[in-house]
């Protein structure tokens, strides 16, 4: 599935998605940044927790990616 701007909603590794959101950062820094954004956005965090997410999750399922894009916009 794709969004209207062409971003593909599929399964992503946390590192992979984080690097899409923070392309100029190292992978480690990008992961920390994405995790921080998720934690600070309480509505997004709550919605992700309802799908089985926790901070140690290494893979985002399509539903989780869809929620992240909904709250943080496309990378």
Task: Give a verbal description of the structure.
This protein has 75 residues and is mainly alpha-helical. The chain has one domain (12-72). It is built from four helices and two strands. It has helices at 14-21, 27-40, 42-49, 62-72, and strands at residues 12-13, 59-60. The two termini are 16 Å apart. InterPro entries: DUF4248 (IPR025342). It holds the Pfam family DUF4248. This is DUF4248 domain-containing protein.
Feature tags:
two-stranded antiparallel ribbon, globular, 75 residues, mainly alpha, DUF4248 domain-containing protein, DUF4248
Outline the fold blueprint.
Elements: E1 12-13, H1 14-21, H2 27-40, H3 42-49, E2 59-60, H4 62-72
Antiparallel strand pairs: 1-2
Protein name: DUF4248 domain-containing protein
Pfam family, one: DUF4248
Distance between the termini: 16 Å
Low-confidence stretches: none
Biggest pleated-sheet summary: 2 strands, antiparallel
Task: Give the helix tally.
Answer: 4
| Strand arrangement across the biggest beta sheet | 1-2
| Overall number of structural domains | 1
Tell me, briefly, the overall form.
globular
Helical content class: 40-55%
Q: Structural class, from helix and strand content? A: mainly alpha
- Overall average pLDDT: 93
**Roughly what fraction of the amino acids lie in strands?**
5-15%
């Amino acid at each position: 599935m794709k969004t209207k701007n062409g971003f593909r909603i599929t399964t992503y590794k946390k590192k992979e998605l984080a690097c899409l959101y923070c392309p100029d950062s190292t992978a480690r820094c990008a992961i920390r940044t994405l995790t921080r954004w998720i934690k600070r956005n309480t509505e997004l965090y709550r919605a992700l927790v309802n799908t089985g997410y926790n901070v140690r999750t290494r893979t985002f399922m399509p539903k989780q990616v869809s929620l992240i894009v909904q709250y943080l916009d496309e990378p």
